[in-house]
From TrEMBL:
One CC-aspect GO term: cytosol
Keyword terms, alphabetized: DNA-binding, Transcription, Transcription regulation
Molecular functions (GO terms): DNA binding; DNA-binding transcription factor activity
PANTHER family (alphabetical): HTH-TYPE TRANSCRIPTIONAL REGULATOR YBHD
Gene: cmpR_1
Protein name: HTH-type transcriptional activator CmpR
Keyword Transcription belongs to the record: yes
Domain HTH lysR-type: 1-60
Family to which the UniProt record says this protein belongs: Belongs to the LysR transcriptional regulatory family.
SUPFAM superfamilies: Periplasmic binding protein-like II, Winged helix' DNA-binding domain
PROSITE patterns linked: HTH_LYSR
InterPro entries found in the cross-reference section: HTH-type_LysR_regulators (IPR050950), LysR_HTH_N (IPR000847), LysR_subst-bd (IPR005119), WH-like_DNA-bd_sf (IPR036388), WH_DNA-bd_sf (IPR036390)
Source organism of the structure: Cognatishimia activa
Keyword Chaperone: no
């Protein structure tokens, strides 16, 4: 007996939503229905697809092999549904968005929400490595990622470009400088995003090239936390210009060692990029980019 599309769709939503109960709510069915579909699929495959735990579910090696196919079926099912409904006015729906920086993601989400207030958006801010992985694994629908890799199975739309700069308080020893170099930061406390971030990769590579060590480094999880740390006088922070809302009491200083411009892209799996929700999100993103 061959699996049916309901089993694949249930399996895909369990992975994307993180649990059987969340998948059931998303699909509008009972949890037992979802459980039965997934169990039947595992029985037909002859192997476990999911590992169940109190913290949720995770894919087995066999599950990873099947998830990409299952999620493509969900995308196709959604596209067929849109066409049958005549491309409705998006009075409902759900979109999973990820980004490796708050901006321009939050601006795009705000613009999209103004047009489609009934579409539920799940937004997650994560490091660069995780952001790429979530799109690659099809766990997120769309991502706004700096220096997103070019892949045959991704749809990429350019949004903006920016350089790395230093942010510090107005009373910081470097605040009056028009420009600084990495050598000027050796005796300063420098704040960077967490491991896995693009900033970590870029800064550490440049330090290695110039054989410079920054002994006073602090790593933090998110850009807002970094900004608040700078405001509290913990040190100066390096990150991309315009990647977060910067407070008026912070000073922005160019860093001569970071002349490369880094590009922010809107990315989505190509089959999902055809869906109306994602096409409208892309339209909102391009409108922000043009401004």
């Amino acid at each position: 007996m061959r699996p049916n599309h309901h089993q694949f769709i249930a399996f895909s939503y369990v992975v994307r939503e993180g649990s059987f109960s969340a998948a059931a709510r998303r699909l509008g069915v009972t949890q037992s229905t979802v459980t039965q579909h997934v169990s039947k699929l595992e029985e037909l495959v002859g192997s476990e697809l999911l590992l169940r735990s109190r913290d949720g579910v995770s894919l087995t090696p066999t599950g990873r092999d099947f998830f990409g196919l299952a999620d493509r079926l969900v995308a196709l099912d959604s596209e067929i549904g849109e066409r049958l409904q005549g491309y409705s006015s998006l009075n409902e729906g759900r979109l999973k968005v990820i980004a490796n920086a708050p901006q321009p993601a939050l601006q795009v989400i705000a613009a999209f929400n103004d047009r489609f207030p009934n579409v539920h958006i799940d937004f997650r801010l994560c490091d660069w490595t995780t952001a790429n992985q979530l799109i690659r694994d099809r766990v997120a629908d769309v991502g706004l990622i700096t220096d997103a890799p070019e892949r045959d199975d991704w749809d990429r739309v350019f949004l903006q470009k920016s350089r790395y700069v230093l942010y510090c308080r107005f009373d910081h020893p470097l605040a009056a400088r028009k420009i600084v170099g990495l050598e000027d930061l050796v005796d300063q406390t420098i704040i960077l995003p967490e491991n896995g971030s693009l900033t970590q990769r870029v800064v550490r590579q440049k330090l290695k090239e110039q054989r410079i060590a920054l002994p006073q480094l602090i790593t933090m999880t998110t850009f807002p936390v970094m900004c608040e740390a700078v405001r509290q006088g913990l040190g100066a922070a390096i990150f991309l210009k315009n990647s977060s809302g910067i407070y008026d009491d912070l000073v922005e200083i160019p860093v001569r060692d970071f002349q490369q411009e880094h590009q922010t892209w809107l990315v989505a799996p190509k089959d999902r990029a055809r869906l109306k929700l994602i096409r409208e999100f892309r339209t909102a993103a391009l409108a922000i980019a043009i401004k």
